[in-house]
Write a structure and sequence with these properties.
Radius of gyration: 19 Å
Bound molecules: 2,5-anhydro-1,6-di-O-phosphono-D-glucitol, manganese (II) ion
CATH architecture of the largest domain: 2-Layer Sandwich
CATH class of the largest domain: Alpha Beta
Strand order of the largest sheet: 4-3-5-6-7-8-9-10
Number of strands: 16
Order of helices and strands: HHEEHEEEEEEEEEHEHEHEEEH
Number of domains: 2
Largest sheet: 8 strands, mixed
Helix content: 25-40%
Shape: globular
Number of helices: 7
CATH topology of the largest domain: Fructose-1,6-Bisphosphatase, Chain A, domain 1
Strand content: 15-25%
Distance between the termini: 48 Å
Amino acid sequence: MNHATLQTFLAQSVEKGQLTAPLSALLQSLANTSTLIADTIHQGALGGVLGSAGTENVQGETQKKLDIIANDMLLEALLTTGVVAGMASEEMNDCCPVQNGEHHPYLVLFDPLDGSSNIDVNVSIGTIFSVLPNPGTGPIANASFLQAGTQQLAAGYVVYGPQTSLVLTFGYGVDAFTLDRKSGHFLHTSAQIRIPEHTHEFAINMSNQRHWHEPVQRYIAELLAGKTGPREKNFNMRWIASMVADVHRVLTRGGTFMYPQDTRNPEQAGKLRLMYEANPMSLLVEQAGGKAYAASVRILEIAPTDLHQRCPVMLGSSEEIDIVVEYHQLSSPACL
Ligand code: AHG
Ligand code: MN
Ligand code: MN
């Protein structure tokens, strides 16, 4: 079977008027860089890239060597595209404006290496990216990035697993590409991905159960009750602990993925980051016909106040998200 290359797919999308040439160039650059990151990851212990870097990021998390390597590779590549005005990342306290790039059209946010805890154990990890317009309000600063997810011009991720796959949207559905390691090209392998409305699979870190708020407790208890419970069917659970890999499963065969806020730290709205995890994944999920909520609000409509703010996440098959959102709306006092 003949698969178009990413390059051809992007060129055709430009011809159809779905994508501008500069955005196409930016997406190609992100894809090219991800193939270099994939090569580095595949070297593993042979390349000396496993293990901790001995440093912490802005959220106090220990950085792995690969978190930093992937971050540097993306920064270096995006600096030279000629279309990026600034970049922000999970691994940098503040944004990185591009020198003389103030008038370039795009801002890019990324989680260079998602699922860091899985690096050393050879389980799927990924890179997540979100492209926003340069607001054009002067020099690029952290505030330039504080735009709602609805403003994203493109979003996607690369999952480094048994296959390296790129999943992409620029507002015309979701398409997936598989890296052909022989040619080094991403080839178009799934067009217009749709998330089934109904599912019997969910993903949540059950070890946090005792900390959940009542709406999540109720929803998950009903799933666990199975065929003889109120939902009258059995549910299956998966938790990879790499958002990229868990969301990839949801986009591939349906299901839900949740990382709710819980009672442990009222100041911290869950674990995942809005700008470079929740927003890009929510755009992909919505573009594929699924839903993405932070308790009772649509993630893409959240007005951000901080580059690194966290956000509760519930996304995937629409029937399930509707139910858990309803439980949040019914709860009193309302949970986030
Ligand atoms: P990161 O490695 O970029 O910090 O993200 C890890 C995130 C996400 O990928 C995953 O879903 C979640 O953390 C797993 O958290 P637990 O270890 O609490 O299950
Ligand atoms: Mn992450
Ligand atoms: Mn990360």
